[in-house]
Structures are given as structure tokens and as C-alpha cells.
Design a protein that fits this description.
Distance between the termini: 23 Å
CATH topology of the largest domain: Rossmann fold
CATH class of the largest domain: Alpha Beta
CATH architecture of the largest domain: 3-Layer(aba) Sandwich
Low-confidence stretches: none
Strand order of the largest sheet: 3-2-1-4-5-12
Structural class: alpha/beta
CATH superfamily of the largest domain: NAD(P)-binding Rossmann-like Domain
Number of strands: 12
Order of helices and strands: EHEEHEHEEHEEEHEHEEH
Number of domains: 2
Length: 257
């Protein structure tokens, strides 16, 4: 009696909702064995289907060593659009090992009529612009980059994080919210009104999970400072790029077949 073929291991560089959706879809299929790698920035991440690997790899060399040892058939770069370093490492490791690299990246938000966007290249530029546009800002840029706004005491910041910070935030005037998305427009409207917000500061993350604040700002006619996505790393050339977890699964099925 012949034994069934071992499931194909798929390495998912995760941290996004799309990565979680893909892991769930692959874990439900006996042909695949997804392994989701998380950087470990969140102490208590949401539950994921399949195997989960926490912590960094130790640069390109560490990722290459892991790929050679674990033997994934494919690598899926489903990291956040602003995670430039791991994206670069993924491309270099895929090239070094000859393993196909699929980029799963949700499209950026499209500007609509009524949006009052002020697009900037980086968060220091956003911090400089903020006091010119408002006095009570909803700040959703992630914990590690909040320091860019430390020198703007003229603005009160409503900061939303997934987990409590280990130390007080380096802001002169702020209120901290601890919440995990997704967030819809109705809830965001209520939040912005309750805190008398007159400015929203965010990254051009794309996707549905955090679009509620963008839609709410449009409804309230509030200005939005939006950090543009970083340019692709030099030489970043994935085997293919898809926009949804469903498209990623379809591509993986064809590639493995």
C-alpha cells in the first residue's frame, strides 16, 4: 500500500489579516502544511491556523538557513505594506535558495470624492504638518513610530494600540486606547465624535480592516494625513503578486500541482 504524499509546507511571512486568511485556508486542506512566521512585535497575536513561528530569523542569512532546513515548497510574503526590511530579506532569501516567492499585498486605498488627504513620504513630515491641520488628532501609525510626534505639544493625540506599551508614550498630550480591529465606519464615527477629533493620521495600509477611520473622516469632512507606502526594495522581484488570500491560494494550488 502506497503512503500518501506528505503535505507541501508553505512558509507564510505574516502579520496581516490576509496572511491569517491564507493560513486558515491552507490548514483546512490536507495537501498543505502552512507555517506562519511572525516577527513577535505583538506579545499576544490573534490565533492562527497551522504552525506558527514567533520571532525574527536573524537577517537574510538566518532566513536562508531556515528555508534550507525546513524545506518549504513556496514562500508567501504576506507582510504589512510598510514592512520594508522583511520584504527585502524575503526576496534575497528566495533568490539564494531558488524557492518561489509569492507576494500577497492588498491594494492601497483609492481616494474618493470628499476625501481631504494630505499625503506625505514619512512620519516626521506628518508630525510637522499635523499642527497646521488640527489640534486633536487620531493617531494610528503603530507603537514603534510614535516618537516622530514627540515634538508637537500643540496637538492632543488619541492613540490606538493593540497592546499596552511597556513604557509611557513619548507624547506631551495624549489619550491611549487599547483595541484590536477590524473597525467599521459606524464605530469610528462614534469614536471621532466622542473625542472631538479634527484630524486623522494614518498609513496607507489598504484593506478593509482599518478603512473605517478613512470613511469616517470623509463623512465628517476631516483632513487625513496619510503616509505613502515605501518604494519596493531594489531588486525585489517576486515570482508573482496577488491581492487577496483567495488569489494566493489559487496560485499556490497551481504552483504545487
Amino acid at each position: 500500500m502506497e503512503s500518501a504524499a506528505a503535505p507541501a509546507r508553505i512558509l507564510i511571512l505574516g502579520g496581516t489579516g490576509e496572511a491569517a486568511q491564507l493560513a486558515a485556508a491552507l490548514a483546512a486542506d490536507p495537501r498543505f502544511a502552512p507555517v506562519t512566521a511572525l516577527a513577535g512585535r505583538t506579545a499576544k497575536p490573534a490565533m492562527l491556523a497551522g504552525e506558527v513561528r514567533m520571532g525574527g530569523f536573524g537577517g537574510v542569512e538566518g532566513l536562508v538557513a531556515y528555508i534550507r532546513e525546513a524545506g518549504p515548497r513556496l514562500i508567501v510574503d504576506a507582510t504589512h505594506p510598510f514592512a520594508a526590511q522583511i520584504r527585502r530579506h524575503a526576496a534575497e532569501a528566495a533568490a539564494a535558495t531558488g524557492v518561489a516567492l509569492l507576494r500577497l499585498e492588498r491594494p492601497a486605498w483609492a481616494k474618493q470624492r470628499g476625501d481631504r488627504w494630505h499625503e506625505v513620504e514619512d512620519l516626521p513630515a506628518a508630525a510637522t504638518l499635523a499642527p497646521k491641520l488640527g489640534r486633536r488628532a487620531f493617531l494610528t501609525v503603530g507603537r514603534k513610530e510614535i516618537a516622530a510626534f514627540a515634538d508637537q505639544p500643540a496637538v492632543h493625540y488619541l492613540v490606538r494600540l493593540v497592546e499596552p506599551p511597556a513604557t509611557p508614550l513619548p507624547l506631551a498630550d495624549y489619550h491611549l486606547l487599547l483595541e484590536r480591529g477590524p473597525f467599521d465606519e459606524a464605530d469610528e464615527l462614534q469614536l471621532l465624535r466622542a473625542h472631538k477629533i479634527d484630524l486623522v493620521i494614518a498609513k496607507q495600509s489598504g484593506g478593509k480592516a482599518t478603512y473605517g477611520k478613512i470613511a469616517a473622516a470623509r463623512t465628517l469632512r476631516l483632513p487625513v494625513i496619510l503616509q505613502r507606502r515605501p518604494a519596493l526594495p531594489p531588486g525585489y522581484a517576486p515570482t508573482a503578486t496577488v491581492a487577496t488570500a483567495a488569489d494566493a491560494r489559487a496560485w499556490i494550488e497551481k504552483a504545487i500541482a
